[in-house]
Amino acid sequence: MSLNNTVVQICPHCDSQQELQYYQTVNITLQPELKNKVLSGKLNENTCSNCKKEINIIAGFLYHDMKNKIMLELSVADVKEEKDEGKEKILEDMIAQGYIYRKVYDYEKLVEKINIFDSKLNDLVVQKVSDKMKDMLDESITKVAEIKEDFHFNVFYKKIENGLFKKKISFYCYSNPGQILEVKHDIKNLDADEKTNLYNLEILRK
Ligand SMILES: [Zn+2]
Question: How far is the CA of 4 from the centre of ligand 1 (A)?
């Protein structure tokens, strides 16, 4: 079941007040058609009944992949979260049943986690490689120019590349969203533990 909620909101374009619906939980196993909306960031987009422009409701939600036992929670940082004991209990039970649960604080991270788990990869190994890539890029950029301001890269998993002899994890990176570059990490350069665990999702479950 995908649960939605109603909120009274004022349209930012024409100020008309209306009731809008948004999702709090999306079950992509039961409603697979919602998955693309999540991936494209259009899950909680509504059309204003008055001016017909788009109103995007910024709200956190739970992404529930029942088939693969994955539960991802998007938390919207600037909205003060009330402690929801009912929800916490449900999540605890799911983790006890072998669910992988991750909480993320930005949308791009949510999409990244979905992509990693769709590729059947262990997200903790991918995160370690991603962190290494980020350190390398951050260091190289400070060496290149006299960049004094706080300059840092965002690094996100893109895909696994299966070559004939080589397998690579590719990431997309940017410090400026207008300039996206791709970096690749050869799987053979992973350390022994990372290699063993890269395709092991079971160790992430209780
Ligand atoms: Zn409007």
Answer: 21
* Residue recorded with tokens 């001016």: 51
C-alpha of residue 192 to centroid of ligand 1, in Å = 56
Q: How remote is the CA of residue 49 from the centroid of ligand 1, in Å?
A: 7
CA of 18 to the centre of ligand 1 (A): 9
DSSP string, 18-32: EEEEEEEEEETTT-G
- Domain segments of the chain: what residues? 3-117, 123-204
How many CB atoms are closer than 10 A to CB 71?
A: 19
Residue 26 neighbours by CB under 8 Å, 6+ apart: 2, 34, 35, 38, 43, 61, 62, 63, 64
At 5-49, the pLDDT tens digits run 898 999 999 999 999 999 999 999 999 999 999 999 999 999 999
